[in-house]
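Hey, I was hoping to borrow your eyes for a little while. For a while now I've been wondering how a particular protein folds. The fold is given in discrete form, as structure tokens running alongside the sequence. Could you read through the record and tell me how the tokens relate to the sequence? Take your time with it, there's no hurry, and the full record follows here:
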Amino acid sequence: MARQDGEPYDWNLGRSGREYPEDSALNNPELDASESDPFGFVETEIVRHRGRGWIGFGIFLVIVITGGVVLDNVARGYVGKLIEAKARSSLALPESTPVKVTVGGTSVLYQAATGKFERVDVAIDKLGVGDLSGKAILTASGIPIKQSQPIDSARVVFIAGQGELTKLFAGFTGLPVSSVTIGSGAVQVGTTVTALGVTVPVAIAFVPSAVGGQLALTPKSLVVNGATLTPAALRSTFGALADPLLATQKVCVAKYLPKQLPLDSVTVKGSSLELAVSGRSVTLSTALLTTKGVCA
């Protein structure tokens, strides 16, 4: 049935004959969804603003963390300088002696707030200890900011080379020491033995250890007139004459080491001998490092 204007009637009673935006979008696929749906456009803009907000917060967080790390590194360096100055003044170290300080643990600012530093390592390139000279490494843990309070633990490793050991071992066996070499986990001492009017060159390889705060040297092998012998073979050949060479020798090193830190380990590393002392609940002061023990 046609209308008076000649157009056919729309008999779809569920529709009013008006076009809605969604109808336009369906009938016109070229129409942009954001233009056809105003609510979708608003939602999209909200998501976009929210995304920009998270990005801005992330950038702010990165700036805060970076600033905190930089500030903590500055504080760590400042504390290290203070400890270095204290070490130089306590041990009378010249400025030409390299001293490296490492402040370990978590945030230095946090450690300072708790009143105690977790760990500090001080490496001294050259330290004179009595007649000896070598490298020293101090490791302390649980160090209170107040210097009058004791620290949890302290360990000092003194590293001596072959030349220094000649001074240390001179006369320790009652025999002349002609040479000292380090290698293969042992300390080899060159000397001479006179038996039946004949002087024989002997090189004794000792395994070092710490016994009762002293440096103990236990014979491992001997080279007699060019022939290598075990302690058992030497004793079976020379009997009681070999006893002075086969006995464990002890060297008192207390006069070289801090009195409050007894010798607790001896290690051969490469061509050096490491003497380690340690103690707990000690006060880290000038007196601790400069007051040496006494050999009985």
Q: What stands out?
A: Residues 11-26, 31-36 have pLDDT under 50 and may be disordered. The CA atoms of residues 215 and 251 lie 5 Å apart.
